[in-house]
Structure formats: structure tokens, C-alpha cells
Specification:
Layout: H1 4-9, E1 17-20, E2 24-28, E3 36-42, H2 57-73, E4 81-84, H3 88-91, E5 100-104
Antiparallel strand pairs: 1-2, 2-3, 3-5, 4-5
The structure holds adenosine monophosphate.
Length: 113
């Protein structure tokens, strides 16, 4: 499949990897929007959060748990961070492979634009 995140998951495209297990891989965002900005994705291809079913709840939990652990490891948990999943057009999704953003290292504004 011609999906850049699938290629990263298969080690066919380069990325700055932060974590990997059988189900999940995490890497730094190539266009970082904050001093710390990384993505946590399932290795299996799901086009969006809207594309998974109830049977994937454990996988979704693992994405969040991985984000929490990495935020601590990278030293940004105490100052704070934001997790974001953009879904479809109005959500601002640009890569059609489910991914969780983690942004940290600066004060983030709210509401988002
Ligand atoms: P979204 O707009 O929520 O779909 O987020 C997609 C994110 O993937 C953006 O923040 C991009 O900067 C990031 N991105 C796209 N291609 C790559 C890549 N090859 N390596 C790392 N991050 C990427």
C-alpha cells in the first residue's frame, strides 16, 4: 500500500523513531508544530479514527498509553502536552493513516483554529 505511515511502520521510509512494538510505532513529526511533536500510530493501516471499530478499543488505548509513557520519557509530562487525533476533512486530517499527535514544549492556545 502506498501510504507513507505504512512505509515508516515497515522501515521502508525513514523517520526518527521513538518507540516500537509489534502493534505500534512512534516517531517525530517531520513538520514539528512545537518543540516536541511526535506521532503514535498503529502499524496496521486504518484510514482514520472513524475507520476503526469497537474491536480496536484496546489498540486505541495503547496509542494513548504510549503517548503518556513517551511524554514522561522525553521530559515534557510535568510541563504538559496535548494529544490530538485529526479526523477527516473538518478535523484537518492530511495523512489517511490513523495517528495520534503529541505536542509539547510551548504553551498551546485554545480553542484550535
Ligand atoms: P494530520 O494533519 O493530522 O493528518 O497530521 C499528519 C502529520 O504527519 C503532519 O503533522 C505531518 O507533518 C506529518 N508527516 C507527514 N509525513 C511525515 C513523515 N514522512 N514523517 C513524519 N511526519 C510526517
Amino acid at each position: 500500500m502506498d501510504c507513507i505511515f505504512c512505509k515508516i511502520a515497515r522501515h521502508e521510509a525513514q523517520a526518527q523513531l521513538l518507540f516500537e512494538n509489534e502493534r505500534i510505532i512512534a516517531f517525530r513529526d517531520i513538520f514539528a508544530q512545537a518543540p516536541t511533536h511526535f506521532l503514535v500510530i498503529p502499524k496496521t493501516h486504518h484510514a482514520s479514527l472513524d475507520a476503526v471499530g469497537d474491536e480496536h478499543d484496546a489498540l486505541l488505548g495503547e496509542l494513548l498509553g504510549t503517548a503518556r509513557r513517551l511524554a514522561r520519557e522525553l521530559g515534557v509530562a510535568a510541563s504538559g502536552y496535548r494529544t490530538v487525533i485529526n479526523c477527516h476533512q473538518d478535523g484537518g486530517q492530511s495523512v489517511d493513516h490513523l495517528h495520534l499527535h503529541v505536542l509539547a514544549g510551548r504553551r498551546l492556545s485554545w480553542p484550535p483554529g
